[in-house]
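User: quick one, fold this
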Amino acid sequence: MSGRRGKASGIPAPLFYGLTGLLMLTNALAVAGLLMSPDIARLTSGQSEDLLSAYEDRITQLRIEVDRLYSRSYAQAGDLNLQLQELSQQQELLSEQHELVRALVTKAGELGIEAAALPSGADETLETSAAYLPATGNPDVDATARTLGAMMAESRAAMTAISHAATGKTENIVAEFRALGIAVDLPEGAAAGMGGPLLPPAGEDSASLDLVGDANSVMAALYRYQAAKGAIERAPVHMPIAGSYRQSSGFGNRRDPFTGGRAFHAGLDFAAATGTAVFSAGEGKVTFAGRQAGYGNLVEITHGSGLVTRYAHLSAILVDKGQEVVAGTPIARVGSTGRSTGPHLHFEVRRDDAPLNPKAFLESGKRLSQLL
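Assistant:
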């Protein structure tokens, strides 16, 4: 009679205890999955390195869990083994995705970009992706699949946040320079000679190819921002004087201090003490360093985009003709030589020998500095 009852139950004792263990493991995995989603929001903040290491630990734990599930269910035939194989493949893809995110976070950090949080709507994306996971009746598999899917969605959201930040900054820089008539040379794709694009290993499946393609697009956005950022350093948009000074005369028509009549003033005047340091407003080459009628001691620097800056009425010249300079290089000292009524710096910006209002360049430089 007892033999017939055992047969009627239809569930061997080893299988019954195995399923009970799997259900208990499911509860632990489900709780862990709920706790994982906030981490990526801090992935590219000031704690990037620690969070990336923690993310790697979680990936390792998931790999162990997938292997454990596979081992326990190896004897069971049917769809479950196929699901476990898919989980193993998804785990490998997540590991690859994490390495790409690490490379992007590192590059973004070098450029001063921090994506502080997930884009709005990321939580809804995670819920939607979880809702479409197949209902198999195997809770351990489903919980692990949901965790893997959430982590992959989070990593992709981090890549998107980095790309949006880099693209937005690049567009702002290009718009500022366009208003000044300065062309910004931006690479179309990932820059050559800087490590090369992120290429997949041979034989990867379409999901891996799509992932690497997305990462390459983000890296290209970072290289474009790097080029735009370099243009800020080169352009003559930086203040040519620091310390204690005041703007004593503007650009355009004014009352001439010598004749009393109306006259055109081709630059900005900054009144300051004799000997105050004068700096190059951008990267360029010194094309004149000497005395010139009206200007007194004069330094002229030729920049890109056909722009030339002039620094006049100097008490001392610190550079030579032909010398290469960058923004912030000390080039002279304030004085009152030439046609001047007192110590000040006369600063001009010219294109094709036509004077432009330096104020537009300096104000643009202030706005651009806030993007760095």
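User: anything notable?
Assistant: The radius of gyration is 32 Å.
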